[in-house]
Each structure stands twice: as C-alpha cells, then as structure tokens.
Write a structure and sequence with these properties.
It is a single chain. With 311 residues, the chain is of the alpha/beta class. The chain is 39% helix and 22% strand. It has a 5-stranded mixed β-sheet. Strands 11-10-9-12-13 form a 5-stranded mixed β-sheet. A hairpin with a 5-residue loop joins strand 2 and strand 3. The chain binds zinc ion.
C-alpha cells in the first residue's frame, strides 16, 4: 500500500503494551518526529496512565516544535481485547484493572482532536502495510510472534473487521487437534505451539529452559530442541496454508522478537506452505519480514487516525 497523499498533517501514534507505552508524533510519510516511552504500570491506575500519555504527547510536540492544533488526529493501538467502536480497553489480562476503560474520550477531550482506538496487532499491520514490508500490496496479513501470536488483516488497505467490529485472532487457528491446551479453551492453537510462550513451555517440559535456550540448543544440534522447533515450524506451515487458502493475501508479513532473530527458519516454512498450494496461482502470496520493528505500532496507529477520517 502507499501512503495517502491527502494525509498532509501530523498525527499522534500511541502503542500500549503490557510492559511499555510508546507515544510518537508521526508525519505523513511515516517518520516519527519525536517519541517517548515509559512503563505501563497498569495496576497503578488507568487515570495515571492517561495523564502520562498526555504529558508525553506535549513533550513530543515541544521537542518537534509543533502545536496541538497542528495534529490531524490521535491513534491508539492497544493490546487487546479492545473495542474500537466503543473506544474501550477490555484487557484485565495483561493490563491489570483495565477492564472496560474508555481511553478515547479523555484524550479527545484533552486535545480536541479525532481519536481512534485499535488492537495493537492491527495498528502494527497498518504500519507495515503503508510504510514497511507490506508497501505496494492491497491485501496484507501480519503475524507477530511474541508472547502470543498477534495478527492483523488488511483488505484493500483497510483493517478487516468481523462481526460487531471484532478482530480476527489468527494466533488461535487450530493447527494440531490433539496439541497442547491453549488458554482460549481449545487444544493445538498456532500460538500455543509457535509463540515464545509455546516454545518456552515445550522447552521447560523437555528440560531445556525458555525459548532462547531452545533456539540455542537447536543451533548446537540438540535433537529435543530440533523437535520443538520443527513443531513450531509445522504450526507455521499449517497456519500460513490456512491463511492463504481463506484470504489469499498478496503479502504475509512476519514480525516480532522470534522472527527478528530467526526469520530465515520461519520464512522457509511459510514459503514452503505457500509454494505447496495447488489451489492458488503460484507467486500470488509473498512472505516477507517486518521492517519497522517496535516503530510499527506508533506509525500504524497514527496512519489509522488519518485513514479513519477518510472513509
Ligand atoms: Zn487458543
């Protein structure tokens, strides 16, 4: 996808995760002019976090020599569940006490700018689709391998929404019907096997330690580690096969900490699944590596704040 030439003004992008909140002033080209980050400390109160976000935006404006009135909008990407339509964060799981809290209203009131909330994986997907690895593609699926496996789906440049505005959770695609129990309630989810948590869990059970140790043991030729990694790669093949056959995206973007360190392994598996398809034209789906790193959330949230006003 290409940046919209009509988006001529600055926007704020906010990326809220379980451990850190990052705030940035982003121009129409996806460049971050100034940014701040600080610990989320969700349990210390939602109002405190909002006040820190407001202060961080003002600091970024000051640093970049801009004014509040120059902002086109404010975009927030937050670890889900979130409700973009209600503007609420409903995530007491990784943001303790933040259950049903409205983040859009206080920021909109403070800055008098249009303000939008999205799932953080969707925001990252928008960032990569417009300014990163997905540039030039009309349909993009991003998979972020971290603690879990986040997913963002963009169709014709817009975030795909399901019923009631909900967000597809591709990390919970079942890839092994008799696989390990996932916290969502079923067995053998993609992220229960291939995420950092999934690999760490299998590594601990095998006496190898967490995911980092599993990858190190794999590099050293350990057969137990090789089996765990192969299982994660097979989970990736099945998930990518499913995604390709249901959505046929032009690009599948792989990102997140595990991919940063081991892209070649996972890309080979994903590309193998795509190439094995006989139902779709060869070459219609490209597997690429995310390039924006932890900037994707800020840049994507800011871009969505622009796009949401162009509907
Ligand atoms: Zn699950």
């Amino acid at each position: 996808m290409s940046p919209n030439s009509n988006s001529s003004d600055l926007a704020v992008g906010i990326d809220i995760g379980g451990t850190k909140i990052a705030v940035g002033i982003v121009d129409r080209n996806g460049e971050i002019l100034a940014r701040r980050s600080f610990s989320t400390e969700a349990a210390q109160g939602f109002d405190r976090a909002v006040a820190r976000i407001v202060a961080a935006i003002d600091e970024c404006l000051l640093e970049s020599g801009r004014r509040r009135a120059e902002l086109y909008g404010i975009g927030i990407g937050c670890a889900g569940p979130v409700s973009p339509t209600r503007g609420t964060i409903d995530n007491p799981y990784t943001l303790p006490t933040w259950d049903g809290v409205d983040i859009v209203t206080p920021l909109k009131k403070e800055f008098d700018r249009p303000t939008f909330l999205e799932n953080d994986a969707d925001a990252a997907a928008v960032g990569e689709a417009y300014f990163g690895a997905g540039c030039g593609a009309k349909s993009v699926v991003m998979l972020t391998y971290g603690t879990g496996i986040g997913s963002g789906v963009l169709i014709d440049g817009k975030i795909y929404r399901g019923a009631q505005g909900t967000h597809p959770e591709l990390g919970h695609l079942p890839v092994e019907l008799d696989g390990p129990q996932c916290y969502c309630g079923i067995h053998g989810c993609f992220e229960a096997i291939a995420s950092g948590t999934g690999i760490s869990s299998a590594g601990s059970a095998a006496g190898l330690g967490d995911a980092r140790h599993v990858f190190a043991a794999h590099s050293a030729g350990d057969t137990r580690a090789a089996a765990i990694i192969e299982r994660a790669l097979q989970a990736t093949r099945v998930a990518v096969w499913t995604i390709q056959h249901t959505l046929l995206p032009e690009k599948i973007v792989l990102g997140g900490g595990i991919i940063d360190d081991h892209f070649a392994l996972f890309a080979e598996a994903a590309r193998g699944a795509v190439a094995a398809s006989t139902m779709n034209p060869q070459g219609c789906t490209e597997v690429v590596q995310a390039v924006l790193g932890n900037r994707a959330g800020i840049v994507g949230a800011a871009q969505w704040a622009r796009m949401a006003q162009m509907k």
